[in-house]
UniProtKB/TrEMBL annotation:
One of its GO terms (molecular function) is glycosyltransferase activity. Residues 13-150 form the Glycosyltransferase 2-like domain. Catalyzes the glycosylation of 4,4'-diaponeurosporenoate, i.e. the esterification of glucose at the C1'' position with the carboxyl group of 4,4'-diaponeurosporenic acid, to form glycosyl-4,4'-diaponeurosporenoate. This is a step in the biosynthesis of staphyloxanthin, an orange pigment present in most staphylococci strains. Belongs to the glycosyltransferase 2 family. CrtQ subfamily. Pathway: Carotenoid biosynthesis; staphyloxanthin biosynthesis; staphyloxanthin from farnesyl diphosphate: step 4/5. The keyword Repeat does not apply. This is 4,4'-diaponeurosporenoate glycosyltransferase.
Length: 229
């Protein structure tokens, strides 16, 4: 467990982004709404890890009030890890909860309050579920097959960088996000569990995400949907 469960005074949200000027504004708006629900004594910060962006992602993020880290890796594992390092800024890990989502996703109003509740309950990490918000960009059969195969129940086996959280202490013990082009979320949760951490797999506060055809990570969620055709 991550020490005093009542001692979480900060939530650091990290959003990796590669050329996300179109979808990032909705993501950041949803985070602002969620942050407004958190008790005032808890500080919420949002950092966009802008990876190899050639569009207006950086300007969009700054205009929305988010902190920005610019990197050139074209690797989501590197982006998430660098973003968390920048968000922590060398501060002690104790009392910090890390929350991860994606630039093409929108979190629900209770997302951060739910994560704070998980943290104060003593969970080391949380794996949440997702639902697709724009099936219209995919053939009808993709939606049918996805809903048949995806089982969003408590205790589920899924891992989504779009809906993941953990204490900064657990993150450091697990070695952080590995520099993987995809599957970095699966690897991190496995490392937390292997180190004796308590991982909650829940359907509470599911995150809406895009069904876009061109994904940002090879073999990521967009790639998975493409295999369902």
């Amino acid at each position: 467990m991550s020490g005093d469960p009542a001692g979480f005074g900060r939530i650091a949200v990290v959003v990796p982004a590669h050329d996300e000027e179109r979808l990032l504004p909705s993501c950041l708006r949803s985070l602002r709404v969620a942050a407004a629900e958190v008790p005032p004594e808890v500080v919420v910060t949002v950092l966009v890890a802008a990876d190899s962006c050639t569009d207006r992602t950086v300007a969009v993020a700054r205009a929305a009030g988010a902190d920005v880290l610019e990197i050139d890796a074209r690797n989501v594992g590197v982006s998430r890890h660098a973003g968390i390092a920048a968000a922590l800024g060398g501060a002690r890990a104790r009392g910090v909860w890390l929350a991860s989502t994606d630039a093409d996703s929108e979190v629900p109003r209770d997302w951060l309050t739910a994560h704070l509740g998980f943290a104060t309950a003593g969970w080391d990490a949380v794996a949440g579920t997702v639902f697709v918000t724009d099936w219209g960009v995919r053939p009808a059969g993709v939606r049918t097959r996805f809903l048949r195969e995806y089982h969003p129940a408590d205790g589920h086996p899924h891992a989504h960088g779009a809906n993941l959280g953990l204490s900064a202490e657990a993150y450091e013990r697990a070695g952080g996000f590995a520099p993987l082009p995809t599957g970095e979320d699966v690897a991190l949760l496995a490392a937390v569990a292997a180190g004796g951490g308590r991982v909650l797999r829940t359907t509470r506060a599911a995150v809406g995400t895009s069904a876009r055809v061109r994904g940002r990570a090879p073999g990521g969620f967009a790639g998975h949907l493409s295999l369902l055709r």
